[in-house]
Specification:
alpha/beta, 306 residues, TIM Barrel, Alpha-Beta Plaits, two-stranded antiparallel sheet
Length: 306
């Protein structure tokens, strides 16, 4: 029997924002969207790559000497990686004494992920469990489902954070092993969705329609991350609120305040952030105003980050 393996880029322990109770969140690599504001750009690609952490570097230049094809060089006391160059990256990573160069993920079996996540199992009895996040955890759907099955075998409560841009057949299969769902609907207009995420939202809406009419609907929260000029517009919130409440009048809807912390990650993965000047988080009054738009358009169960 083939052992199921996949790429995990982080474990976040003692999380209280990714579901009920104290949880361990497992971040799986790969995403089907390319959101302009992505909070985890290191998780977008399924391909494993090295990352450089300058705050750990002791400038021993071991990595420079080990790079045979120019994949690592030093300029102005800064280490610069060129991940397109063919190098023995594992050797370079293994020989970095301060772990300033590390791979962005671990290649693990599903059983290894379950064991790692369940190190926190004593805390789960207080209403917690394990959350799969990403990236889009269902992009590695076979791997994710094996993890979920392993967790259910241990009676661990499971939660997923998903953008729902996954084949409906796969989406429905995975939901058999998931207790609670956080599902994003970022932008209602299909063309604007394509502009800011790279794909239209027809499949997402199809999956949400199924989810919000399923027996699981009471355990679903629809989320919209509030991104200035992109998702945080009155029209967008109104259209999403009207749409999801028309499917399920008691739907739970959460508005997530803008998170400015992602900007620091972009240089690390050789990408440009979507804002030249990083916006501030929304004030409590601004969040309440967004919330009122949602409730004015049919939402009864509103969740606000204040």
């Amino acid at each position: 029997m083939e052992i199921m393996k996949g790429y995990v880029f982080d474990f976040k322990r003692f999380s209280v924002h990714d579901g009920e109770g104290i949880r361990t969140t497992v971040f799986l690599k790969g995403c089907t969207l390319r959101c302009a504001w992505c909070q985890n750009p290191e998780g977008l690609s399924l391909k494993q790559r090295p990352l450089y952490f300058p705050n750990r570097c002791i400038h021993c230049n071991t990595c420079v000497h080990l790079a045979e094809n120019g994949g690592v060089r030093e300029a102005d006391r800064q280490i610069i990686l060129d991940v397109k160059k063919k190098e023995d990256w594992e050797r370079i990573v293994d020989n970095c004494p301060s772990k300033a160069i590390s791979m962005d993920s671990r290649y693990m079996t599903a059983d290894e992920v379950v064991e790692e996540a369940c190190k926190d199992e004593p805390f789960f009895k207080y209403g917690g469990g394990v959350t799969l996040s990403g990236g889009e955890p269902l992009m590695q759907h076979e791997f994710a489902i094996e993890i979920l099955k392993g967790l259910k075998d241990r009676n661990v409560t499971t939660t997923i954070e998903t953008a729902s841009n996954i084949q409906t057949r796969i989406y429905q299969e995975a939901m058999k092993y998931i207790d609670y769902v956080y599902a994003d609907l970022k932008i209602f207009d299909s063309e604007l969705h394509r502009k800011y995420t790279g794909v239209d939202n027809n499949l997402i809406k199809q999956n949400l329609d199924w989810l919000l009419t399923s027996r699981k609907r009471e355990n679903v929260i629809i989320r919209t991350p509030l991104i200035p000029t992109m998702t945080a517009t009155n029209d967008n919130i109104a259209m999403i609120a009207e749409y999801i409440s028309s499917i399920y009048p008691d739907v739970k809807y959460e508005l997530l305040n803008y998170n400015p912390l992602a900007q620091a990650k972009y240089k690390m993965v050789d990408k440009e952030f979507c804002f030249e000047e990083n916006p501030s988080v929304y004030s409590d009054d601004q969040m309440r105003a967004f919330g009122k738009i949602a409730t004015d358009n049919g939402i009864k169960n509103l969740i606000l980050e204040i």
